[in-house]
## 1
Amino acid sequence: MDIVILDGHTENPGDLSWSGFEELGQVTVYERTPKGDTREIIRRIGSAQAVITNKTPVTAEILDACPGIRYIGLLSTGADVCDCAAAASRGIPVTNIPAYSTQAVAQHAIALLLEICSCVGLHSTAVHAGAWENCQDFTFWESPVIELAGRTMGIIGFGKIGRATGRIARALGMRVLATGSRETPEGLEIGEYTDLDTLLRESDVVSLHCPLKEETRKIINQDTIAKMRAGAILINTGRGGLVDEEALAAALRCGKLYAAGVDVVSQEPITPDNPLLGLKNAFITPHIAWTPVTCRRRIMDIALGNLKNFLEGHVTNRVN
């Protein structure tokens, strides 16, 4: 079969191989495809039977223009990049990559929190600049260092990643509150389930791990921030759309929130007018929590397995 990979670079910038797909058919790999150029997307898909995509959209219009498509494989967990209903109505399965980066995303959420609380980067830079050798004392600090033991982390979305984050928080001596997911025995071993208002009121740290849906869009906004503790910390490794960035920026500027650590923003790549840019208490990483080579290799293996299973007549990880 003809297989087209619309945006392969982020998954494989050169440290992995598409050879497994090449064993299944004729493969064309595009490093990047313009997301807003429907005509170009249609041209690149052409008569291909299998389309592999990460962030390049596959709309109903594209499906109509490319009747040869028999299969769509996503290189991500989220499926909003594809019109799954339109694909289903045409008998086209859409598959995704579930649970490939649970530990890595939890690790990154805690890394953001530790950077805020321990200021490792700030003090390392100061030492290399000569501040320690010129210090009259054996120590100095340029920003407060915060102990996490005894504090409370509230986790909104207590699925696999939320629970993994909660386990690390517990290991650091934190109390864990959770909301946004149904209670499970595993979750009850890690934290206490509660309602959103209680979580916001009692948490020193709020970490977002819920999916982006209409009911969670801008779940962190002016009203919910007002319910948070003064001096609380917000962590977001979920989706940028979970946060009203204007409201967050205002809370960071006035000191209502002590700091925020985010790996995702509302528009990616980040735009120059994003209100979080330039704020010293906004710690921003460029959507890298999922990127360890072990995670991307896992994506490759699962995506290849999904396509193989489709060709063998049984679809796995179908989302439509």
## 2
Amino acid sequence: MLKYLLVLVLFCSCKSTYSIFNKNPNTVVKKNGWLSVKNGEIINKDFQPPQLRGVSLSWSIWQGKKYYNTQVIDWLVKDFKVDLVRVSMAIEPKDGYLENPEEQKKLIYTVIDRAIANGVYVLIDWHDHHANLHILQAKAFFLEISKKYAGVPNVIYEIWNEPVHQSWEEIKKYALDVIPIIRKNSKQSLIIVGSPNWDQDVDITSKSPIVDYQNIAYSFHFYASDPAHQEKLRSKADFAINKGLPIFVTEWGVGESDGNGVFDKEKTDKWLNWLENKKLSWAIWNVTDKKETTAILKPGASVKGNWTDADLTLCGQYVRKVLREAKK
């Protein structure tokens, strides 16, 4: 009998943690399944644009690091009603992936596993402005992580966050080096490629998109109150969408591009309406208690979730309301 129990325990412990989400038939991943790209749109298993809405964790270092835990993910799913969580793994700064890869992987795996267990999507973001300089490290990381999460529909790969001054040709070359690494293990996962100028110049990207692989989308970023991020920037995205470029807004904020500045609700509402009309999926920046406009939490907010309105900034209150109303 003892031998039987030991075998049973070992069997249970070896079962994939990713089967947990299957127990709940009402999760967003159960509803939408594998995401793919067809006719210039990101679609779900029913060939409809899912319009996922969620939040981005902050850099996996500095103040935001302490929110990389299971309790926070549980609370974001339960209370904020997120469809997705973006995991922004820091690469270049001190204590980031280049300096401490094992610690960074352990940190993000905790969050990724919990998002999967909760049945939501998770954006795995290589949060690097100069990814073309770290291609060997990126390839090694994406080979490992795509093997770890092979066959898991929750996982979306964002392979380069906000290229700065690199040309589309440089970004495209990097993507064509990294994408086949992921495809070795995951044939159908959605992969999101960056665009020039902080993920803003999607109009340039749309003129020469990647055609070698399927299920490729492109990131577009904006900061809703920034004077430089208004009609001209929307026009760039509209141009790309009209050209058939599939877009995922992997990061946007209520403030200005430096994370601070004003929170102009009228401008933010206008951007949000644009997202809704275009049925674009998005993640808002960011889960941290840093004292800045785009932070969701006030300084000192609990690292275990269970936040009240008093713990939330104006940004936090705004996005929580938007996310919860979307579920009604």
